[in-house]
Design goal:
Elements (H helix, E strand, L loop, with lengths): L1 E6 L2 E6 L15 E6 L4 E6 L2 H7 L7 E3 L9 E9 L14 E6 L14 E6 L7 E10 L5 H5 L4
Parallel strand pairs: 3-9
Antiparallel strand pairs: 1-2, 3-4, 5-6, 6-9, 7-8
Length: 154
């Protein structure tokens, strides 16, 4: 018996598998890197599937509430991220797809000599289920300190 499974906007035929056993159907979990510009520290936090699904569809530069990363009263800005292959997100590329772009000194490429350009793979600015790492910056502080809320994980 063959089941037809819906996996992230595409149909895959998974022979001899149930609809829930397809490995591509798992929801994304983001590894959030939260930077604190005031203290010059960074904190890591793994977001649950429910918090991750609430962030899907947001873009680089959007502001989110800190409740998603256990920081109530805080406001955070999405500054970037990368997918499971390590391909970085780029603010100038619309959507969430991967694309090969000719880059000079910018996100995704650091030239070795002046004027060097290279065609590199980058991902669009929109968050999707393929993203595994999410970079956030604190822009508005809450009543408690970040150290109290997140602990000494930094």
């Amino acid at each position: 018996m063959v089941y037809l499974t819906l996996c992230f906007r595409a149909f895959y035929i998974c022979p001899f598998m149930s609809a829930t056993s397809c490995s591509r159907c798992n929801m994304a979990e983001f590894q959030a890197n939260i930077s604190d510009p005031k203290d010059c520290k960074a904190y890591k936090r793994t977001l649950s599937e429910s918090d991750s699904s609430a962030l899907i569809g947001r873009s680089i530069g959007d502001e989110i509430d800190g409740i998603f990363v256990s920081l109530p009263g805080y406001r955070l800005q999405i500054t970037g991220g990368s997918d499971g292959s390590g391909i970085p997100m780029r603010p100038g590329l619309a959507g969430g797809q991967r694309k090969r772009m000719l880059l000079s000194h910018s996100t995704g490429f650091r030239p070795q000599r002046p004027g060097q350009r290279k065609r590199k793979m980058v991902r669009g600015k929109e968050l999707g289920p393929e993203i595994t790492q999410l970079n956030l910056k604190i822009i508005e502080y809450g009543p408690k300190t970040v150290e109290e809320l997140l602990g000494a994980e930094g």
